[in-house]
Write a structure and sequence with these properties.
This protein is of the alpha+beta class. The chain has eleven helices and 17 strands. Strands 9, 10, 11, 12, 13, 14, 15, 16 and 17 form a nine-stranded antiparallel β-sheet that branches. It has a four-stranded parallel β-sheet with strand order 3-2-1-4, with helices on both faces. Strands 5-8-6-7 form a four-stranded antiparallel β-sheet, with helices on one face. α1 packs across α10. It starts with 6 loop residues before the first strand and ends with a strand. The structure holds adenosine monophosphate (AMP). Adenosine monophosphate binds next to β14.
Length: 355
């Protein structure tokens, strides 16, 4: 166990790191944030920050000397950097988990090997394999880069464009073609697992996207109990199979006929878990701290219905109205520049749960 008073290292300087540092401080920990960007909204609320590239070994070594455990808030931290750190200090999650979750093809194979369904897909390495994959999967499909995709970036719908244009648009990099799933809804489950094997699972939540970016999460999702149980069971199974230490967010599609397909894994706090700050016994950020420090896990049960809306780009300018709205809980991330598609904050509205 790594007790309060210890120092937690966070790789990544964004809002997920910021909210983790706030939760850690509440439990008496200090955080050191390592991130390359001059603006570091996680560093703004942490004990210290190190401004350096993730590949900078001298900076990583200094970081490792100053922390008792390290975690990530940004899933595209190079796995090699986490490996380097892992030789000096416990890193939770471990680099081996990033090897799986940073590559869409490896991730889909891993999930499928567990006997869990994923969208039909095929590896694409050049225009010829793309043509062949299109022949099998049909034009109602999406070409995605294998690595570095997030918020719908690195994706092209094949019924909008020619295969060659799609291949060029993604930069001619290793990709996968995925059949488009006619889903009834998208849900996600966040599960925590500690080094001693304790597991705590949040309820499935309903996610609405626009332009590939999460807009709204409704928690808990109004889905049949059997489906919710299955979604939790899938998340728990994946966490155990990965030997996870930390958090895992599992994004899933639910089809019209009630089947669950896993879309994506993220071994870190997740936007669809922000509701838990205002409506659960222990929010996802505190849960991450508890998991990586091997403390008893907190209670993930919601005590209210919650609707979380992201404030994207210019929407953040509504803050005075939101601040004046009774019951609206406003969270602003302190980013200095408003840009289209940038997550600037979120607002959660809760409604007490009727038994
Ligand atoms: P991703 O980055 O893979 O999570 O994709 C972002 C969003 O695009 C998802 O949340 C879905 O709304 C949509 N999407 C991605 N893949 C598929 C698919 N195979 N079928 C239907 N919609 C998809």
């Amino acid at each position: 166990m790594i007790g309060p008073g210890a120092c937690i290292g966070i790789l990544g300087g964004g809002q997920l790191g910021r909210m983790t540092a706030i939760a850690a401080a509440r439990l008496g920990y200090r955080c050191i944030v390592l991130a390359p960007e001059p603006e570091c909204i996680a560093g703004d609320v942490a004990f210290a920050r190190i401004e350096a590239d993730y590949e900078n070994e001298a900076a990583l070594a200094e970081f490792a000397r100053r922390v008792q455990v390290a975690t990530i808030e940004f899933e595209n931290v190079p796995a090699a950097s986490l490996r380097f750190l892992g030789q000096r200090v416990p890193t939770r999650p471990a680099a081996a988990i990033l090897d799986v979750t940073q590559d869409r093809l490896a991730e889909k194979c891993f999930v499928a090997v567990q006997g869990i369904a994923v969208a039909d897909h095929a590896a694409v390495d050049d225009p010829a394999t793309l043509e062949a994959a299109l022949g099998t999967l049909g034009p109602a499909s999406i070409l995605k880069t294998r690595r570095m995709g997030y918020d719908g970036k690195g994706q092209v719908h094949l019924d909008d464009t020619s295969p060659q244009r799609a291949w060029d648009a993604l930069g001619r990099v290793p990709s996968i073609l995925e059949r488009r799933v006619a889903f009834a809804c998208e849900i996600s489950v966040i599960v925590a697992r500690s080094p001693s094997g304790r597991i705590a699972c949040y309820p499935p939540v309903l996610n609405g996207h626009r332009d590939g970016i999460l807009r709204r999460t409704t928690a808990p999702a109004a889905i049949p109990d059997a489906l919710a149980d299955e979604a939790r069971a899938i998340a728990g199974r994946l966490a155990r199979a990965l030997r996870l230490e930390g958090l895992l967010a599992v994004e899933m599609f639910v089809t019209e006929d009630g089947r669950i397909l896993v879309n994506e894994l993220a071994p870190r706090p997740h936007n669809s878990g922000h509701w838990s700050i205002d409506a659960s016994g222990c929010d996802q950020f505190e849960q991450l701290v508890r998991a990586i420090c091997d403390l008893p896990l907190g209670d993930p049960t919601p005590f209210a219905h919650a609707v979380m809306d992201n404030l994207i780009g210019e929407e953040v300018r509504d803050w005075p109205t939101l601040l004046a709205e009774p019951g609206a809980r406003l969270h602003l991330y302190g980013k200095s520049e408003i840009r289209a598609g940038r997550k600037m904050g979120h607002v959660t509205r809760i409604r007490p749960q009727v038994p």
